[in-house]
Every structure is written in C-alpha cells, then in structure tokens.
Amino acid sequence: MARPKIALIGAGQIGGTLAHLAAMKELGDVVLFDIAEGIPEGKALDIAESGPAEGFDAALKGTSDYADIAGADVCIVTAGVPRKPGMSRDDLLGINLKVMKAVGEGIKANAPNAFVICITNPLDAMVWALREFSGLPHEKVCGMAGVLDSARFRHFLSLEFGVSMRDVSAFVLGGHGDTMVPLVRYSTVAGIPLPDLVDMGWTTQEKLDAIVQRTRDGGAEIVGLLKSGSAFYAPATSAIEMAEAYLKDQKRLLPCAAWCDGVLGLKGLYVGVPTVIGSGGIERIVDIKMTKDEQAMFDSSVNAVKGLVDACKGIDETLA
Ligand code: APR
C-alpha cells in the first residue's frame, strides 16, 4: 500500500518542523510547498539527509508548484506571516487572508479529499476563510489551537505540581489566545480536578489564576523572547498529533477549531471546541454544558471570533 501523502503549505519555521516530525514518525511522504524560492527544496533535502541516521522511510519533496500536492491525504497550512513583538495575532488578518485565498484555491484544485489543518493566525478566522476559499466539507477543515493551548497549560501545571506532564490533562475552549477559555474543573492531575487540588493545598487559587493567564499569553511570551518570529516547535507537534489521529483513525478527543453549527449554542462558526478526530475528519463535537461563568467567557471568545470573521468579509467581498 502506498504511503499517505502529507502536504505542508508553508515551509517556514513551523512548516520545516512539521516536515521533520512527519518524516521521523513515518506518517507518510512529505511535500513542502512555499512561494519562497529554494526554501522548500532546501529544507526537504536537508531533512531527507537526516533519514539515514534517524532511520526513517519517507520521501521528501520541496516545491513551489501546487500540482505537486495532488492527491494529498493531509494538508497542514502555515503559509503567511507570523507575529513580531508588539503585534497581536489579529494584526495579521489582512495579509494572511490573501494568503488563505491562494492556498484555498490550490487545495481545492489539487487535494480536494485532504484533511486540512490550518495553523496560520489569527487562527479561528483564517480556518473559516480557508474553508470558504477551498470549498471542502466542513468536517475536513479544522484549525490547530486548542492542542497547543492545552499543552502549554499542562506544561505550566506540571511545573507547579512537580508531576509528569503525562499525568496532567487540560481542557480548553474558545478562540486561540487572549480569549481562550480554560475549563479548570475539567482539567486534572490523574483524574483529580484542579479545584480539588486547590482544596488539597497543592496550589492556591491565585497561583492557578496566574497559570491560566500565562497560558493565555503563552504565544506572546515566546514572541517576546524570540523577537524575530513566533513559536514553532510546540505548534508543529500539536498539529502532527491531529494529523496522526486522522491518518490512523485514532478517534482522539482533541480540542481544535471546528465548524460548530447547532452545537454549544452556535450557528455556523469556527471556534475551539472538544472534537473527536478519526478517519472521517472532525467526526464529533462534544457538546458540553458550561457553568454561567464559563458560558460568559466562551461568549466573549465567540464574539471576538465573530468580529474577525466580519473583518474578513469587509476585506474580501467574495466572503460576504
Ligand atoms: N503560499 C505559500 N507560502 C507562503 C505564502 C503563500 N501565498 N505566503 C507566505 N508563505 C510562506 C513564507 O514564504 C514562509 O516561508 O509561509 C512561510 C511562513 O513561515 P514563517 O514566516 O517562518 O512563519 P511560521 O513561524 O512558520 O508561522 C506561520 O503560523 O502560528 C502561525 O502566526 C503564525 O501565521 C503564522 C503561521
């Protein structure tokens, strides 16, 4: 049986890391696409040359021709520009919207059966635009944000508790970034909910609140340190987890930006929600019940995403 084909649209910091991870995990053959001359070819060759030492079997190809992504099983989209210090994700809207148009049309023409994972920011609006431009079924187009946000949350919690990150699970909802909604009562250490751990004296409410805020600001913290771009290792790892769930029909329950129409009180919006990812793409959205406070936070996150979608419609009239 032929290996799956993974097309990475954007061969920058995240794209290159995605290619390396996909090859090392032998998820399939990798095509790196970018408009920057020589970059996709150079990275593909460099990673291929790590194959003998690493011992993986995967073909890597770099290209600037959309025809080379033909028949891809998975497309992961990072094309666009990242943040610089002082910028919010929303500042990227205008420029990255144009990129989504080109990418959406490229996927529509060449890989209409792919499972598409968008990483380009501002995430929730870009995944919506990408779906509109590509015309693919909604369940085959999603965005990577919640896996990363919850990974950051888990990491900070594991440091606070002095336990393995593997034993910390976290539950986040909503848009990527400032309006992210961490559901602390569903976040646990080996099944013990965070509020119980506060009661048990493992941490304090103040410390927990600070960890939640650091998670919300997690992307900005890294932009501030790197200065020349934004995070790429953890974003790439998070998207690979989603791609693997699809390719191996794992039915993983992962938070991601998914099309919500008739769930969680939403009518037609991409936003971060708990989903089940398997060979059907986004196979299910977990329609959880929220408390009043959680619902208020979720509503404000939803409104922020709606504002960005409206801004997209204002920029590109074909989306209105
Ligand atoms: N088609 C294909 N590739 C494009 C296009 C396009 N129309 N426009 C830009 N690119 C490429 C750039 O040439 C660059 O190589 O996208 C790549 C982006 O890579 P980086 O600048 O290194 O950015 P990266 O850190 O990978 O982040 C990409 O993900 O997390 C988000 O906010 C981040 O929107 C940003 C995206």
TrEMBL record:
HAMAP family noted in UniProt: Malate_dehydrog_3 (MF_00487)
Enzyme class: oxidoreductase
Similarity comment: Belongs to the LDH/MDH superfamily. MDH type 3 family.
The keyword NAD appears for this protein: yes
Protein name: Malate dehydrogenase
Classification via InterPro entries: L-lactate/malate_DH, Lactate/malate_DH_C, Lactate/malate_DH_N, Lactate_DH/Glyco_Ohase_4_C, Malate_DH_type3, NAD(P)-bd_dom_sf
Residues annotated as catalytic: H176 (proton acceptor)
The keyword Oxidoreductase is assigned to this record: yes
Keyword terms, alphabetized: NAD, Oxidoreductase, Tricarboxylic acid cycle
Source organism of the structure: Roseivivax jejudonensis
